[in-house]
UniProtKB/TrEMBL annotation:
Domain annotation Zinc finger CGNR: ranges: 141-181
Protein name as catalogued: CGNR zinc finger domain-containing protein
Transmembrane segments: none
InterPro entries, sorted: ABATE, ABATE_dom_sf, Znf_CGNR
Organism from which the protein derives: Actinoallomurus acaciae
Length: 192
């Protein structure tokens, strides 16, 4: 029986969905794009379909991912941007040849210069990261409150008080932990 690869956590923001392909960074990290095929799958789900991906392209993608994570984290805690991360983000942005195209249904789609150009897809992700780190979009970068996660996410809530990268995973786990702690307190109370 072959183990199924870990599923994807998909958010509304391309760049932070991409950094979310490595989760539990401060705990037991889960690599969600362990193979070139899984990067192909992730890109397809995010409207950036490519036909092939080499190991070198996967490595480049992970390098971009970690650079976005570093720059987004620095932004969330108001630290200066790490220069090597900025360099990788900019290089990836420059090296791509993707074009935005409009569909008759008024959707924007990305057209890559060729089906084997992972670099084009990465440039779209890099440009998305640039727009949120530069503060161009309505929202704020923040870090997940889960101590084993600390993922950078883009908070678009009106009050800008979102605490978790993902309500269904980190948020839920926190709620359950609090519930269990309460249960224990109640049980202890009864025993004593
Ligand atoms: Zn989280």
């Amino acid at each position: 029986m072959s183990a199924r690869p870990p599923g994807f956590r998909l958010g509304k923001v391309l760049a932070t969905s991409f950094t979310g392909t490595l989760t539990e960074r401060r705990g037991d990290p889960v690599e969600r794009i362990p193979t070139p095929q899984r990067l192909i799958d992730w890109l397809a789900v995010n409207g950036l379909a490519v036909e092939s991906c080499t190991t070198a392209q996967l490595e480049r993608a992970r390098e971009l991912r970690e650079s976005i994570h570093a720059a987004a984290t620095a932004t969330a805690i108001q630290d200066p941007l790490p220069a090597p991360a900025v360099q990788v983000i900019n290089d990836c942005s420059i090296q791509g040849r993707a074009a935005a195209v409009l569909t008759p249904e008024r959707n924007r789609q990305w057209q890559l210069s060729s089906a084997s150009r992972v670099e084009d897809a990465l440039s779209v992700i890099a440009a998305d990261a640039i727009s949120i780190i530069a503060g161009e979009r309505d929202g704020k970068l923040a870090l997940c409150a889960s101590p084993t996660c600390r993922a950078a996410f883009f908070d678009t809530s009106q009050s800008r008080t979102r605490r978790w990268c993902d309500m269904n995973t980190c948020g839920n786990r926190q709620k359950k932990a609090r519930f269990n702690a309460n249960q224990r307190t109640t049980a202890d109370g009864k025993a004593g």
